[in-house]
Automatic annotation (TrEMBL):
One family name in Pfam for this protein: HrcA
Gene3D superfamilies the UniProt entry points to: 3.30.450.40, Winged helix-like DNA-binding domain superfamily/Winged helix DNA-binding domain (1.10.10.10)
Domain Heat-inducible transcription repressor HrcA C-terminal per the UniProt entry, residue ranges: 110-332
Name of the protein in question: Heat-inducible transcription repressor HrcA
Similarity comment text for this entry: Belongs to the HrcA family.
Its job: Negative regulator of class I heat shock genes (grpE-dnaK-dnaJ and groELS operons). Prevents heat-shock induction of these operons.
Amino acid sequence: MSVIPIPELNDRARDVFRLVVESYLGTGLPVGSRTISKMASLSLSPASIRNVMQDLEELGLLAAPHTSAGRMPTETGLRLFVDGMMQAAEPSVEERRAIEAGIAESGPIEEALSAATATLSGLSACAGIVMVPKREPVLRQFGFVPLNARQALAVLVGQDGSVENRVLDLPEGVSPVMLNEAANFMSARFAGLTLREAGEALSREMEAERGALDRAARDLVARGIATWSHDADDRPVLIVRGQSRLLDESTAADLERARQLLEQLEGKQEIMDLLRGALAGSATKIFIGSENKLFSLSGSSVIAAPYRGADGRVVGVVGVIGPTRLNYARVIPMVDFTAQTLSRLMR
């Protein structure tokens, strides 16, 4: 059913509809006409409100889950409310400080993104999600720390201060002196390069058979570059935090919906496909329930906002996943502010 333009609703219908939606989003429960008559100065009797609610139901904006129950907004009604009637509330000073503090206290960009996601999850009572931009770190320094005769800890330090460690299997006969020699060689030759560029430079060195390293040390360097490069290719590009917040009191009566939602969160590739739709725009996007096939069964909503890199281009998406009855007026500006804060960090 197509969304009814707001001008086609008279003032009385708009007021009743807004009160039903706001009450439902606050409680998660259907709303009856008597409840509406007590909470608003509409000067309407419960019978008159009931008639208006019936009209709204015929328009596809409200629905009654049971014959004797009150009304609740349909997904069409929620879309109408979010797009044309909702009055967004700016994040409070405390919320802004919490988001900024969580991001500022983190080190490498992945940690900042994870912190932003966890903070957003806590403030919104939803699951926080962030799409990590694919990037190649610029290298600064390498090191090898021997663990035993057959293994060493390979340490990579990026220009941005990030530090990554990998356990590396060693060829037979590698000595601590050789480890130190290989680390010095890598730091001298590959500083300022990306992993891909370092691998290409190493290939040229080996093809030219230059004598700076013997064969065993060259093999050690190649193993280190290959290990980091492989891990970078396989690095998760989606961070999800706060899944447990989706299991609130309202889900106790609908465990199947909760189970479906948690299963959907495990399918990160499908969520990535959904979030890529937000990469193309410059504004926050809202997906409500079955508007997206991924969450049609669980009846969930996604709010996602793009954030930008140093060159101003969109590099990732941050947002939340929660029930369709989430507090859109509060959460949408919160997601937007988080995206703006991440954009400032990436500059």
